[in-house]
Amino acid sequence: MVVPTATSATPTGLRRTARRSDEIWSIKRFLTPAAVLLVLVVLFLWLSSLTLDSIESRTLNTDYIIARVREHLGLTVVASALVALLAIPTGILLSRTRSRLIKAIVLGLANVGQATPAVGVIILLAILWQTGYVTALVGLVVYSFLPVLRNTMIGLQQVDENVRESAFGMGMTQNQVLFRIELPLAVPVILAGLRTSLVFCVGVATIATFINAGGLGDMIVNGLKLQRYPVL
Known about the structure:
Layout (H helix, E strand, L loop, with lengths): L5 H43 L5 H6 L2 H35 L3 H16 L2 H11 L4 H25 L3 H9 L4 H31 L12 H10 L6
Helix pairs in contact: 3-6, 3-8, 4-6, 5-6, 6-8, 7-8
């Protein structure tokens, strides 16, 4: 009788564990979209069974909903793109400077922008400047700037110093080390900041309706004002 040794059994066990982990991860990955889809189907069936009055019919029609979704996505996508274009280069520059004063000033301003309530930021900008799309866009950028800035700096700072020294030893310049070594290694951390910023933009864009910037917030405000719960 052949007794399996630990060395022969361990790889098989590891492969089974890895396969089981992949299966669990696949289930979790598709569980949330499936749950959201199920909720949307139930909501659609419920709304279809209701008798809507004239106000609800004007709000819950396809053209109105598509227009509000387009406005909301426009605010969110443009604001997220601006945050990426502004915060990532700023984070790179701050990670290169040795001035603690400059870092403290920039990070302090970014912290103030995020610590201030989103409604306060947008309303204050509307009072001091104007109402409309541009003001809401600036408010979203101010509120969502910090996560990308901070994660860019952290991602670059956590690159192993030995890796940098090895790159310089191979004859690379500062820019080559940055673009070929540091930024690729920092991408996962930067993407995490972009994801957080995108979540902020999606949520805060809802209150853009208070300064006449449109978005899905129009439907929420109308439903609350008129006490039309199907609209909500």
